[in-house]
TrEMBL record:
The keyword Nuclease applies. Gene3D superfamilies: Ribonuclease H-like superfamily/Ribonuclease H. GO terms for cellular component: cytoplasm; ribonuclease H2 complex. Belongs to the RNase HII family. One of its GO terms (molecular function) is manganese ion binding. Its EC number is 3.1.26.4. Transmembrane segments: none annotated. This is Ribonuclease HII. The keyword Amino-acid biosynthesis does not apply. It is found in: Cytoplasm. GO terms for biological process: DNA replication, removal of RNA primer; mismatch repair. It catalyses: Endonucleolytic cleavage to 5'-phosphomonoester. CDD domains: RNase_HII_bacteria_HII_like.
Length: 200
């Protein structure tokens, strides 16, 4: 099924999505994108449906052909303080705040969002596989986050973030068990299956 360009009747509609919500380490990253109404790309889809190679090929195309885009990381310490849902929404708000012109409608992947300024919005479950602007935001969020994880991989190569990007793979959990945690790990997350709350 072809992805649609517009959800609302507003001419400056932005799509927003995040990446890295389920990770044990690294930031949660959101992007917001306003696409022109004549935008077409047969390869663009939800970033989870695309290979890493395709995502990185699409990234410069989206950045060049969009009207505007923004990307925002929210890091571990803030995730631990305000929780991952609030951090995801804050990252989306931060990415929307970078858009110029300001959008007059926001479509959000998923079912949770807090109003941004007084701009009307709609949440759309699986929106990244239905609307091009959300798909574009999902690609930018994922590629910018992956690039960041590859940089911090150099600092702590034993966790192999270059490969697992901070997700809770067996290998990542085994490395946590062996080496402990780093400053990039989310301390509020269940980092190991047998981890219990500390008695305080």
């Amino acid at each position: 099924m072809a992805l649609k360009i517009q959800f609302s009747s507003f001419n400056l509609e932005c799509g927003t999505d995040e990446a890295g919500r389920g990770c044990l380490a690294g930031p949660v990253t959101a992007a917001a994108v306003i696409l022109p109404l004549n935008f077409k790309n047969i390869f663009l889809n939800d970033s989870k449906q695309l290979s890493e190679k395709k995502r990185f090929l699409l990234k410069p195309i989206i950045e060049e052909e969009c009207i505007s885009f923004g990307v925002q990381h929210i890091f571990e310490s803030e995730i631990d303080t305000i929780n991952i849902l609030n951090a995801s929404i804050k990252a989306m708000h931060g990415s929307i705040s970078q858009l110029n012109p300001i959008p007059n409608y926001i479509i959000v992947d998923g079912n949770r969002f807090k109003p941004y300024q007084s701009i009307p919005h709609s949440t759309i479950v699986k929106g990244d596989s239905k609307y091009l602007s959300i798909a574009a935001a999902s690609v930018l969020a994922k590629t910018y986050r992956d690039e960041f994880m590859e940089i911090i991989h150099e600092e702590f190569p034993m966790y192999n973030w270059k490969q697992n990007k901070g997700y809770p793979t067996k290998e990542h959990r085994a490395a946590i068990k062996k080496y402990g945690i780093t400053k990039y790990h989310r301390k509020s997350f269940r980092l190991l299956p047998e981890q219990y709350q500390l008695d305080i």
